[in-house]
Amino acid sequence: MLGGYCECFCWSNQDFYGDDFYLPDPQPFSLPVPLPKWPQGQGFATGRINLGEIEVVKITKFESVWSCGLLRGKSKGVTFYRPVGIPEGFHCLGYYCQSNDQPLRGYVLVGCDSNAHKPEVGHINDSEVDSPLRKPLNYSLIWSSDSQNNGGSGYFWLPNPPEGYKAMGIVVTYNPEEPKVEEVRCVRADLTEKCETSNQILSPDPKSSNPFDVWSTRPYRRGMLAKGVSVGTFYCNAYLSSDEVLIDIACLKNLHHSLPAMPNLDQVHALIKHYGPTVFFHPDEDCLPSSVQWFFKNGALLYRDCGQKGEPIDLRGSNLPSGGENDGEFWIDLPVDDDARNDVITGDLESAELYVHVKPAFGGTFTDIAMWIFCPFNGAATLKIGLMTIPMTKIGQHVGDWEHHTLRVSNFTGELWQVFFSEHSGGRWVDASDLEFIEGNRPVVYSSKHGHASFPHPGTYLQGSTKLGIGVRNDVARSKYYVDSSIKYQLVAAEYLGDGVVTEPCWLQYMREWGPDIVYDSRSEIDKILDHLPFFVRFSVENLVDLFPTELYGEEGPTGPKEKYNWVGDEIC
Fold it and tell me: Which residue segment(s) compose the domain that 184 sits in?
């Protein structure tokens, strides 16, 4: 019994789980095919990254120290790992933890003084106050399992740093003996940034007298201008919450302003050609994507908030208002002629391409490749109420639909690490081990019927109340309609490369709306829904409204990629 926390057995370096339950160790994950030899450049995919005063290496090999697994419930437990294979001269900063029901795919950074190999007169050693890395003074025991089953308990230690330094992570042992101070290093405070809890790895039992809560960590400030570097360690305490800023530990900071580990232009194109996803549209999709130029060429009109007629937009979008912000004064709409309007609504798959924005992530230790796709029209929604499916006639429709997915690539190796799928009202990161691949290391992205939200696997995804089975259907499947982004793409922005390296198209500077504001007659649509329902399961109109996403009742004209939060910031999950 883990301090009253759960029925569980714990062990150190054991491959059994109780007397008769075998729990295999998580196996490492590899991409479907080996990585290519990337074009030559500065520091990209060299295995090491210089952060200024500290150089770091990513460790992905571990030895298990202690595990906890539930004998009751659905959880398969977690394992805590010590990094191994640390290069000479580098030091551990903290341990790693992950769930046992997924492949062993994680990392921790180890660091060294980047000037250690350049001794100078009066060079300071590890004991001096201004050294980038120093040993902790000692450790504080912050939690233990109090179990004597199968190899001992688990003990969790927080390094106590010298004044002016920060701990980076937790150390785990399977006996009560305090770890040696040589086990980890603390980092000088001016070389660190705040970090926060990210994903919950292990949740506590609220009835426990000895609660245990484990979270992965990430930099508090994220985005292409942020300097925080994720160390890959975890944090544990009682009753933490998501996005909680941590006081006891920190993350690293990249003070190397040139970001030498970011890919150069040739390497960017190589990454896109190697990892560019194939985007599949639904077999019944009748609102397909097109290029922006095709949209302009086929009659899109620019309107101004003064009642004037729409103005044709030239092929480059050079007559669109540039810069500023979305003040509601301008918007784009479909052609006035009915035939031309219907043609544009259908889209043009042959001209469609992905518009690519490349930017630093986690202080330049990762590269985010955001891939935007444009659809001239967003089709009507399909509602699900229990077992019933009800297509709408107008609700959900709007002009100009921008959707995206983002590849996150490790700058240590050039390995695809995660993909972000932009879904309505947010999105989610999916690890490479959970992706579907096609033709080597290129993942598959599924675009939902009419709404064009992105998903990692085929099926039906409900936006609304999954508990009640009420909401908007997002149906995704493979079909003959697809875009291969490894070939059909246009690099539109990569600010870190410097001025003039990538020429941004004129239309990218258009910060206003790509479609007019729409207010739907939701009451009449909902009355139609109620007419379909048996009397004994009918909701009141007010209750039904509360169960559906708010965007069903009106649509502001969507803005373009550069006006979205994630253009500069991190993805919103």
Answer: 9-13+25-115+130-253
